[in-house]
Amino acid sequence: MKIAFVIRKDCSRCAKIAESIIELLPKDWELIYDHEAAKYLNGNGVDLTRMEADVIITIGGDGTVLRTLQLARGPVLGINMGGLGFFTELEVDEVGPAVFKLLKGEYKISENMKLRVEINGERVEDCTNEAVVHTERIARIRQFKIYIDGHFLSTMKADGIIVATPIGSSSYSSSAGGPLLLPTLKGMVISYLAPYSSRLKPVVVPSDSKVEIKIAGKDQECILILDGQREYKVKSGDTVRISRSENNAKFISFRESIYDRIRDKVIRHVVN
């Protein structure tokens, strides 16, 4: 069994949790560390782009999980050291019992769609949550043309456009007024950031659709942001194409169903 550890930057507490997990693992299991974990655990670190394991344990917040899903290969078990932690499976006080379940193989691997993203036909990193095209300068509205499967949908003015996966629909897209899609649904949500017209409503399209966002007008500098982790500059005349990736995001889960996660991470958080 090959287990990898990825921890939040400059988090000594995260490293101590990793140490406590390692003490419970069989001695013959192979251990891999990212460079940050290796600093604390006296191991040799590897780049995330070269990391591949049977289980990748991330210790941090949602950003740590999303960065790992973008670059590494293997199902992720997230331990929450941040805020909401929608993508993390465990809180710190749940780690011990969960490790024993892991040892006994009492877990599931759930798969969720990722987005394939291209800029003018050149592919960049996949994303799990959302791809956002946003104005580069604050309070400078931009003009976009949106196409679905080659068919023109609309020309719109807004601060930006979000294309989210079902699992990402509970995040940035939701804060922009987009609907919550259950991960069992196969679709993408297109929502808008501060649209000039209040008549513009979010749109849900099938997961096999190809969404194209063309930067219209002159001097329309924007930024493409993937899962809040990677940024690319785009400008007037550029086209961002978003479609379903052939790769899936894989998560280790001990929960009975996705509804448990939605209840625990989204609904209960909002009510409280």
Q: If you had to describe this structure to a student in words, what would you say it looks like?
A:
- It contains 6 helices and 17 strands.
- The protein is α+β, with helices and mostly antiparallel strands and 272 residues long.
- It folds into 2 domains: 2-107 and 254-271, Probable inorganic polyphosphate/atp-NAD kinase, domain 1 (Rossmann fold); 114-246, Sandwich (Tumour Suppressor Smad4).
- A 6-stranded antiparallel beta sheet has the order 7-6-17-14-9-10, with no helix packed on it. It has a 6-stranded antiparallel beta sheet with strand order 13-12-11-8-15-16, with no helix packed on it.
- It starts with a strand and ends with a helix.
- The mean pLDDT is 91.
In short:
20% of the residues lie in helices and 39% in strands.
Tags for this model:
272 residues; alpha+beta; Rossmann fold; Tumour Suppressor Smad4; 6-stranded antiparallel β-sheet; 6 helices; 20% helix
> What spatial form do the alpha-carbon principal axes imply?
elongated
Instruction: Tell me roughly what share of residues is in helical segments.
Output: 10-25%
Distance between the termini: 39 Å
**SSE sequence, one letter per element:** EHEHEEHEHEEEEEEHEEEEEEH
Poorly predicted ranges: none
- The largest sheet has its strands arranged as 7-6-17-14-9-10
The total of beta strands comes to 17
CATH class of the largest domain: Mainly Beta
% residues in beta strands:
35-45%
What would you call the structural class? alpha+beta
CATH topology of the largest domain: Tumour Suppressor Smad4
Rg on CA atoms, Å:
20 Å
CATH architecture of the largest domain: Sandwich
State the domain count: 2
Q: Main beta sheet: strand number and arrangement?
A: 6 strands, antiparallel
